Amino acid sequence: MDLLSVKDLHAQIDGKNILNGIDLSVKKGEVHAIMGPNGSGKSTLSNVIMGHPKFVVTKGSISFEGKDVLELSPDKRSRLGLFLSFQYPFEVQGLGFSKFLFSAYKARFPNKKISVLDFQKLLKSKAEALHMTPEFTKRELNVGFSGGEKKRAEILQLMMLEPKLAILDETDSGLDIDSLKLVAESVNRLRGPDFSAIVITHYKRILNYLKPDVVHVLSEGRIVASGDMSLADELEANGYKTVLQKSAMGRGAEK
Ligand SMILES: Nc1ncnc2c1ncn2[C@@H]1O[C@H](COP(=O)(O)OP(=O)(O)OP(=O)(O)O)[C@@H](O)[C@H]1O
Ligand SMILES: [Mg+2]
């Protein structure tokens, strides 16, 4: 059974069609990469999978572990083990980072009885693994964090919440070379039969570390090509033009 199964997904925002029939299946333990031009719908797809209320699903289905999630709130989806690392993490004034993480942790693992002290110890060890000082987690969530610090804060959440499926929306953008390697290594350490990921990126560099099982290209709200790492190599070498032309020719032949 697929861990995530997206079928013929269509979605709109403010009456404008953004996703025009997405089919995507992610199995347990797999890492998929999604590439695609700016504005092609990658972040929209992530938001729709997480249940962002702004987007209206007009057709199609999303199931996670065989369960239809379309009617579930984002909160419920994250409890099931879905996680999104935002392309643009929000600054939340007045909400302490560690306090936020503690509530998120309790919501994700309602049966784990963890004391505040043990939670703090766990958080400290995970933060250190990401070379984040404990002072960080005492600050307000993302407030005044640099671009790269926000991305690392997202990965810290990922490591604490141990999702079954993590969607990383351009987590690599804005990370310095060492941080990128650190983040990729952290994600690689999570890899195993109970962890899958969808990695959205514009660049091959992070994929060299993560070695995705499948690479997809999204264009105008559709997946127009899927393949292995050689697809990412081709895009890096030639840009999107050739891949998009091939797919348009393929669609022409279907008609
Ligand atoms: N709130 C909104 N109102 C109007 N249009 C929107 C809104 N949100 C997204 N869109 C449009 O949906 C399209 C897809 O946007 P999306 O953010 O999913 O692209 P993307 O593939 O993630 O691009 P990028 O690589 O730049 O991050 C864009 O044309 C965008 O302008
Ligand atoms: Mg985006």
TrEMBL record:
<dbReference type="Pfam" id="PF00005">
    <property type="entry name" value="ABC_tran"/>
</dbReference>
<feature type="domain" description="ABC transporter">
    <location>
        <begin position="4"/>
        <end position="245"/>
    </location>
</feature>
<dbReference type="GO" id="GO:0005524">
    <property type="term" value="F:ATP binding"/>
</dbReference>
<dbReference type="GO" id="GO:0016887">
    <property type="term" value="F:ATP hydrolysis activity"/>
</dbReference>
<dbReference type="InterPro" id="IPR017871">
    <property type="entry name" value="ABC_transporter-like_CS"/>
</dbReference>
<keyword id="KW-0067">ATP-binding</keyword>
<dbReference type="InterPro" id="IPR010230">
    <property type="entry name" value="FeS-cluster_ATPase_SufC"/>
</dbReference>
<dbReference type="InterPro" id="IPR003593">
    <property type="entry name" value="AAA+_ATPase"/>
</dbReference>
<dbReference type="InterPro" id="IPR027417">
    <property type="entry name" value="P-loop_NTPase"/>
</dbReference>
<dbReference type="InterPro" id="IPR003439">
    <property type="entry name" value="ABC_transporter-like_ATP-bd"/>
</dbReference>
<keyword id="KW-0547">Nucleotide-binding</keyword>
<protein>
    <submittedName>
        <fullName>Fe-S cluster assembly ATPase SufC</fullName>
    </submittedName>
</protein>
